[in-house]
Amino acid sequence: MTLAPETTDLKVQVRLAADWLTVCDLTHLLPGRGVAALLPDGGQVALFRDRGGRLYAIDNRDPFCGAAVLSRGLTGTHQGRPFVASPLLKQRFDLETGQCLDDEAVRVTAYEVRAA
């Protein structure tokens, strides 16, 4: 069963070490658009929901320029893998693994995420 996000009170949570941190309401995640959330250590996580309802969370900091902008990037797919392209320099990051699709030596942190 798929629930319409407008009719639920589900919260989006990311796993930090052994604990789950609630970061926002599911209704704040629109398909194809990112949202940034502040983490307890001062870092940021970029959250995404695709049109199929799957959730993704990666570090919001673009490793190529240091700016916290990945949540504002364009989403898409490459060879069946979901990605976000940085809005500044356009490098693409796999939303499941954090791997940069344009430079295999670069990766951002990918977080386990759920709606609960």
TrEMBL record:
<dbReference type="InterPro" id="IPR017881">
    <property type="entry name" value="NirD"/>
</dbReference>
<keyword id="KW-0479">Metal-binding</keyword>
<keyword id="KW-0408">Iron</keyword>
<keyword id="KW-0411">Iron-sulfur</keyword>
<keyword id="KW-0534">Nitrate assimilation</keyword>
<protein>
    <submittedName>
        <fullName>Nitrite reductase small subunit NirD</fullName>
    </submittedName>
</protein>
<keyword id="KW-0560">Oxidoreductase</keyword>
<dbReference type="InterPro" id="IPR012748">
    <property type="entry name" value="Rieske-like_NirD"/>
</dbReference>
<keyword id="KW-0001">2Fe-2S</keyword>
<dbReference type="Pfam" id="PF13806">
    <property type="entry name" value="Rieske_2"/>
</dbReference>
<feature type="domain" description="Rieske">
    <location>
        <begin position="21"/>
        <end position="116"/>
    </location>
</feature>
<dbReference type="InterPro" id="IPR036922">
    <property type="entry name" value="Rieske_2Fe-2S_sf"/>
</dbReference>
<dbReference type="InterPro" id="IPR017941">
    <property type="entry name" value="Rieske_2Fe-2S"/>
</dbReference>
